[in-house]
Design a protein that fits this description.
The complex is a heterodimer of chains A (118) and B (114). With 118 residues, chain A is mainly beta. Chain A contains no helices and twelve strands. Classes of the chains: A mainly beta (118), B mainly beta (114).
């Protein structure tokens, strides 16, 4: 069965520190997609990135970077030089190929609350 | 503004009552998904509609129902409300399949049952 584990419930860092949020997933499919979403205190869910299972290249977007390693079933998210505005709950999600009925499974991890202190 | 509109933003109601949450998907998106986010349960998938038809069901209670109308907006109906139904209800939309492109979420409806 598919599963997404974000073992870190809450992380606190001081501004300008680097922080890595862990995401470990389980799936039997060879084709799947991984996502990260951010939920700031205002409550909305913001899409950050998607990665397909065939592309293990790491990605960098400004202060954000993602490390996808199929060998360890991990898709970790690093924020470099963290800022107070990065304070949010971050969710990792997994999407698998559609079933024979056309539906597909899309599940979220339980989230990691990041607090960046000034 | 994500393009997904949810109304109302906040709702306070009493136990036993019925409420309707509304969602308008992003322009061009055919799929609508409903999620419940409570403090102790994280994000739980409730139900998906695609172009008016139910496509997938998650942990949706029998007291809850949803539908997607011809104009693609969706409504989530919650009846016989209990205190435990207090949560943030998100609607999300996607193109034909959210598998590839992920979802666009609305800002949520915060339901408080008293």
């Amino acid at each position: 069965a598919q599963k997404v584990t974000q073992a870190q419930t809450e992380i606190s860092v001081v501004e300008k520190e680097d922080v890595t949020l862990d995401c470990v997933y389980e799936t039997r499919d060879t084709t799947y997609y991984l996502f990260w979403y951010k939920q700031p205190p205002s409550g909305e869910l913001v899409f950050l990135i998607r990665r397909n299972s065939f592309d293990e290249q790491n990605e960098i977007s400004g202060r954000y970077s993602w490390n996808f390693q199929k060998s360890t079933s991990s898709f970790n998210f690093t924020i470099t030089a963290s800022q107070v505005v990065d304070s949010a709950v971050y969710f990792c999600a997994l999407s698998e190929a559609p079933t024979t009925s056309g539906t597909y499974k899309y599940i979220f991890g339980t989230g990691t609350r990041l607090k960046v202190l000034a | 503004d994500s393009g997904v509109t949810q109304t109302p933003k906040h709702l306070i109601t009493a136990t036993g009552q019925r409420v309707t949450l509304r969602c308008s998907p992003r322009s061009g998106d055919l799929s609508v998904y409903w999620y419940q986010q409570s403090l102790d349960q994280g994000l739980q998938f409730l139900i998906q509609y695609y172009n008016g038809e139910e496509r997938a069901k998650g942990n949706i209670l029998e007291r809850f129902s949803a539908q997607q109308f011809p104009d693609l907006h969706s409504e989530l109906n919650l009846s016989s409300l209990e205190l435990g139904d207090s949560a943030l209800y998100f609607c999300a939309s996607s193109a034909s399949t959210g598998m590839v492109y992920g979802y666009t979420f609305g800002s949520g409806t915060r339901l408080t049952v008293v």
